[in-house]
Amino acid sequence: MKLLVTFSRREGRRPIIAQVVKDTGVLINVVRAVIDSHEGEALIDIPDDQCEIVRKRMADLGATVRILEHAIILDEEECVDCGACISICSQEVFSFDAAWKIVVNSVRCVLCGHCVTACPHGALTQSEET
Amino acid sequence: MILPTVISERYKYPLIDIENMDKPIDVIHERIRDGNARVVTADQMPAIVADLGEEGALAEVDVVTTGTFGAMCSSGAFFNFGHSDPPIRMERIWLNDVEAYGGIAAVDAYLGATEQSTTRGITYGGAHVLEDLVGGKSVDLRAISKGTDCYPRRTLTTEVSLETINEAVMCNPRNAYQRYNAAVNTGDRVIHTYMGTLLPNCGNVTYSGAGVLNPLSNDPELLAIGPGVPCLLGGAVGMVVGEGTQHSPSRGFSTLMLTGNLKEMSQEYLRAAIMHGYGTTLYLGVGVPIPVTNLAAVRSTAVRDEDITVDVVDYGIPSRGRPTLRTATYADLRSGVLTLKGEEVRTSSLSSFRRAHQVADRLRDLVLQGEVPLRAPARRLALTRGAKPLQETTHAPRVREIMDRKIVAVREDDEIKSAAAQLLKGEINHLPVLDPEGKLVGIVTTYDISKAVVNPAKGPLVRHIMKQRVITTTADEPVDIAVRKLERYNISALPVIDNDRHIIGMLTAMDLGKLFGGRWLK
């Protein structure tokens, strides 16, 4: 399961993720992280059954945590099922079904954004909240 | 006036032998009228022929419908807007700020799919205007003229839609490639091409075309497809005009010139698209019905994805002679994975196989409803032609012709101070750094030296501050490619090196000025 963690950096530079790993013993896989002087945003991947414990500890340490559900959104009206998104996605989010229609497995998405620019029909957008 | 008989005598193309059809088209028309015709899509034919044999398939199947749906850049439409009052001879014309060609009569224009908006750039182009019109939208028409006695008006701004204008005729110089080479990138950076985004180091393979469903793959001998034959174009019943441009049947790359009424088209089969970093293009659905009149038609429509081979071409090399890494069939490409240099590389298409099916299905329904006037070609398409490269009378300038041959360089173990002196003496901003054998190992700029003065902690020698990753060019490289490097890496000079990394010159932004000194501008 992927969690999107945002935290402020104004109150010093506490190593939030390292702290949570230490406190909970859950091995956190950081998929993406964007951190500047004011705030940080990290996309982390953890086992589903340990979501709650990680989420709670993160919140205790002052981070905002959101479960990433629909990372990438496909506009069925614009999509022509060409498949340009398939081979450029390192996470194998996209595939064809038996009728050559695009299937999106957005759970795998790490928000890299390559597919959004590569789609010739502008049919893909990243989840708005991110 | 030239009489029709004169034309046929002069004609170098063989005429279609209508007499020798085992099942004349008239008989097929009759079966369609009587509701007894069997019309199938091209992907069904291999199984039918395997099942019934060739003779059996000839007796059973009357028409095979084909289809493809992909990017067809060489597309556009003629418009006749009607005359305004007072009338204008439209010389330059824009539709939603996309320029249409106006050098044809007073109120005619041709809008190409890849022309880009003057105000919105790559995000909107001719293809988008075509899709907007087909979708029922109005577009802004702007035109200017110098004014004449008969056409006094000089400017015009109005809104037009397909309902309000006289004609909107799609006429595409090159559509429906028989097959298309697949693309890969051996370079070390992501490139954006008309074959989509290509990841570095053979990160992915892209391909285009419907293979088993492709119209011309089902008639490689060009016996059934030719001038006057009906087609489905953008959802409307259109017609084959003749050979498309770059038609190369000898190499298995036949193309078609097609026409159809834009007013009858639908967005389901006509979509504007943007190839990131490249430009706008039009995704079009094209299908051609192939009447099964004889065994030759049975055999050609029994083609399978496995039978159609293309080259996998390296788009990382920016010249016309792109190397081929391997060949692959449409079956290989459609499997989703291709082995390249011992590694499995994922493939994906740019054209839609699903929509190609929809085109073939729609065409089958229209044929069964008697809406498609099947006929033999008015003449056979050229079978031997090939596409030639452009004969360039002025050659593209090479780096050797404008590079600075005076080389000022330093050694790795020189002091930064002496490098600074060299820069001042040579009135330059870039110093190549050479090893004892004279090979290029780094570069130092005035900026690097300024930084070293402000922050001397790194050390006193050139090798402490030089950049080791040097972007270089060669004497034979076209200047256009060197300029792309300067732009891409945001730098202002390239050392020119030979095969042994010996430096033979420098190409700086200053040298590019020589191109505008009149030598290359005729």
Offer a quick outline of the entry:
Chain A has 130 residues and is of the alpha+beta class. In chain A, 18% of the residues lie in helices and 28% in strands.
Radius of gyration of chain A: 17 Å
Q: What is the CATH first-level class name of the largest domain in chain A?
A: Alpha Beta
Query: What's the helical proportion of residues of chain A?
Result: 10-25%
At the third CATH level, what is the topology name of the largest domain in chain A? Alpha-Beta Plaits
Strand portion of chain B, in percent?
25-35%
Name given to the CATH architecture of the largest domain in chain A: 2-Layer Sandwich
Report how far apart the termini of chain A are: 16 Å
Output the structural class of chain A: alpha+beta
Query: Can you tell me the CATH superfamily of the largest domain in chain A?
Result: ACT domain
Q: Name the assembly state.
A: heterodimer
Strand content of chain A: 25-35%
Terminal residue distance of chain B: 40 Å
Largest interface: A-B, 19 and 30 residues
Count of the domains of chain A: 2
Share of helical residues of chain B: 10-25%
What do you see in this structure?
The complex is a heterodimer of chains A (130) and B (522). With 130 residues, chain A is of the alpha+beta class. Chain A folds into two domains: 2-67, ACT domain (Alpha-Beta Plaits, 2-Layer Sandwich), CATH 3.30.70; 72-126, Alpha-Beta Plaits. Helix content of chain A is 18%, strand content 28%. Chain A is built from three helices and eight strands, in the order E-H-E-E-H-E-E-E-E-H-E. The radius of gyration of chain A is 17 Å and the shape is elongated. Chain B has 522 residues and is of the alpha+beta class. Chain B has three domains: 64-73 and 170-368, no CATH class; 82-165, no CATH class; 399-516, CBS-domain (Roll), CATH 3.10.580.10. In chain B, 21% of the residues lie in helices and 29% in strands. In chain B, strands 3, 4, 7, 12, 17, 18, 19, 20 and 21 form a nine-stranded antiparallel beta sheet that branches. Chain B is globular. The two termini of chain B are 40 Å apart. Classes of the chains: A alpha+beta (130), B alpha+beta (522). The interface between A and B is medium-sized, with 19 and 30 residues.
